[in-house]
Amino acid sequence: MPCLYITTNVNFDGVKTDPFYSEVTKAIASIVGRPQNLVMVVLKGSVEIVFGGNKDAAAYGEIVSMGGITKQVKRELIATVGSLLHTHFSIHPSRFIFKVFDINSLPLPSKL
User: Known InterPro entries for this protein (predicted)?
Assistant: First the structure.
């Protein structure tokens, strides 16, 4: 069940976010190989972010998944989400930081 969380300094008042939700959900499901009904997307706007010393449009994103994350999948997720943020909210890909995390890659807890 992948969960995408994006925080940005873009103000979403009067901005239609539904097309972004739809496109990014579809893309994540396809890239990670999970059904769309298991993809969660959280989008938080109007957050104070300074990136590179200025407050131009920027975003921080992370995706957490239970499996399905390979190096190629990471690259594709970063490129796709960055492109969608640029298309929908004018956030240039160079002003977007993205963390990809697969919880299945965590070491198993030891039995002490």
Answer: Macrophage_inhib_fac, Tautomerase/MIF_sf
